[in-house]
Design brief:
eight-stranded parallel beta barrel, 15 helices, TIM Barrel, about 450 residues
Amino acid sequence: MKQDFFWGASSSAFQIEGAWNEDGKGKTVADYNAFKRSHLQADTKVASDFYHHYKEDIALMKELGLTAYRFSFSWARIIPDGDGEINSKGLDFYDAVVDELLKNGIEPLVTLYHFDLPYSLVERFNGWASRETVYAFERYAKICFAHFNGRVKYWQPHNEQNLMVRVDERMNIEENDPQKADELRFQMDYHMSLAHALAVNACHQMIPDAKIGAAISSTMTYPKSNKPHDVWAARMNDNFKSNYLIEMHVTGDYPQYYLNYLTQRNITILRFPEDKAILQQAKMDFLAVNYYRTLCAEYYPTDEQIGVRERGANEVDFHQRGYFKLLANENLKASEYGAQIDPMGLRLVLNDYYEKYRLPMIIMENGLGAVDVLEDGKIHDHYRIDYLQRHIEACQLAMEDGVMLFGYCPWSVIDLLSSHQGFKKRYGFVYVNRDDFDLKDLKRIKKDSFYWYQNFIQQSLS
């Protein structure tokens, strides 16, 4: 790896910060959803309490050897109602975090929006259903670009828009009719793409030395067999889950297969004439890739309701009539939470994206969620070391293939709140001593993977 390659780790605001309503922060969709499950698991009120431990945690990042930290600002901490007055205490907090990172030689890689829309925008505009939210995001982005100009040089407008829109809860979609839900979903998706483009354009205008790119939940699908229809089904799953959105970000419009699908479903997206120039002007500087698993698909024949989506094994995977049905890949092992582990898939997806889009790439998320056990003050997470080692090797092979990759930031820097498994499912290099209903002492304990990654970074930079 090159000396200027970023060795980092990742997090997001609602999963790590806590202090959900301190110092003027407003409620978010992530808070609202977490509170609904608070009788079952931890919520966002404390999370990992990074808000009160950021200096200690950044000191651990420096000890780990990180040269970059990918994290998100909470929109509602900076603008509590989403589009009103700026909360100076929110900016003060992120000033302190960014300055502490820079003081410790760690490059801040900032996401503006990671699943945590200010809830006031839901109450007033139904969130991304309205263009009002598009312009509120543009204003928020411009405030951040102006305030952190010269200190933050790498930005991502949204995290995993292509995954977020599949989850009704994250998009505050409460429509029981599947057709109406999808009509709303596709309009919201378009509005988010427009907001992304406005942020990209504003970044280039306001801080031309900065870099900005999309953070995509990557999809790599294998066909169940070598039957031509299964091969087509696998490709269409990739198209509908990820490629359509990268195409929108790169070209400024949807690909034809996507437009055909909208016609097929009798879905019309409201677009204004001036949007086209905004979308086409928005040229990304890089593509941020989040990678956890691969999928397998077979052709889904049907005579009725072609194109209609059906829920798959989890909230983010769906079958699509007339296109594809997903199934387990019998050649891969899965994590205890069901994600099929596939380092070769990472090499494939990096090659695929680079061949298509010719953009520099960085891994912004990649990790193994597991139930880590604290024994005699230690966590022996050899399974995570094996996972990360194999995926880093896949990155190295992709670079040998010619892929331009400039960083690797596994999920996550410390244990944090999992959206649906609370603190049972852990990803971090550092154990946070709490469980779902007992905060204990929130002590930070370095896992075996911490020492492994620390040694690996040292060797890579020497």
